[in-house]
Amino acid sequence: MILCFSGTGNSLYVARQLNVVIKDEIISINEYLKEDKEKIFNSNKPFIIVAPTHAWRMPRIIESFIKESNFNGNKKIYFILTCGADVGNAIGYAKKSIDKKGMTFMGLASIIMPDNYVALYDSDDRKHSKEIIRKAIPGILDIAQKIKNEKELPNKPISLLDKIKSSVTNPIFYSTIVSAKGFHTNNACISCSKCVTLCPLNNIQMNDTKPQWGKNCIHCMACIGGCPKGAIEYKNRTVGKVRYYNTEYPN
Ligand SMILES: Cc1cc2nc3c(=O)[nH]c(=O)nc-3n(C[C@H](O)[C@H](O)[C@H](O)COP(=O)(O)O)c2cc1C
């Protein structure tokens, strides 16, 4: 069973690409969060968590989701993290998330995809993004084959810097950067409410005709990346920048 969380479509794309080989079911963690569904999962095949990297770890909300979930049936669990560059010591925290669950950790693999963090950085242009996605495919298929054969994924060495990024910088990032304050719409907003639908945390409500952000934001970039009019801004950092949302579909 593939359990996937995705802000802007990269992790969903990878989940679908893995599934071309694995041929299992894909469960949307976004839906579970949005609808507050009971977190009980049954599968005879290994569990595979696919998620983006947020500050050199799985998003905190996904670490908690895994801790709170019941996994029944197959005891093997894999982690696949998409990232713009690197995942630091995400593996250490993935292992912690299944502590005392009686699961067998089968490894964590990272897949480089286009960086979606438009609130802090520039996104790649469309052509470059497509190229990054194309280059990722052989690696995804290789991982899929290993998972299909229930093999462990190879370990990558973890440096002191990796550990510092995931253990020291990550909490600083969450306490100083991650906040919904600063999201607003420009004149291009057509009040279509797509941002309300896309937000996995139900953190956006229509106030009259314009979206309003609550306090429960994880900076997943779904709203800003998925707005059909590019009408969502973050402070003044995103004005004129290319938005990113992956709408590719594996063959
Ligand atoms: C809040 C936030 C933090 C991020 N932190 C990292 C990071 O630590 N390392 C990295 O390589 N990419 C980082 N990224 C980039 C994403 O992990 C990457 O674009 C991912 O593929 C997005 O997946 P999604 O489209 O499924 O949400 C970050 C993106 C966001 C929005």
List the helices and strands and how they pair.
Layout: E1 2-4, H1 10-22, E2 26-28, H2 29-35, E3 40-43, E4 47-52, H3 60-68, E5 70-73, E6 76-83, H4 90-97, E7 104-112, H5 126-148, H6 160-176, E8 183-185, H7 194-198, E9 204-207, E10 210-213, H8 222-226, E11 232-234
Helix pairs in contact: 1-5
Bound molecules: flavin mononucleotide.
Distance between the termini: 20 Å
Q: What is the mean predicted local confidence, pLDDT?
A: 96
Write down the CATH topology of the largest domain.
Rossmann fold
CATH class label of the largest domain: Alpha Beta
Q: Give the neighbour order of strands across the main sheet.
A: 2-1-4-6-7
Q: How many domains in all?
A: 2
Largest sheet: 5 strands, parallel
Strand count = 11
So what's the overall shape? Answer: globular
Rg on CA atoms, Å: 18 Å
**Poorly predicted spans:** none
The helix tally amounts to 8
Derived from helix and strand composition plus strand pairing, the structural class reads alpha/beta
Beta-strand level of the residues, as a percent range?
15-25%
Second-tier CATH architecture of the largest domain: 3-Layer(aba) Sandwich
SSE ordering: EHEHEEHEEHEHHEHEEHE
The percent range for helix content is 25-40%
Bound molecules: flavin mononucleotide
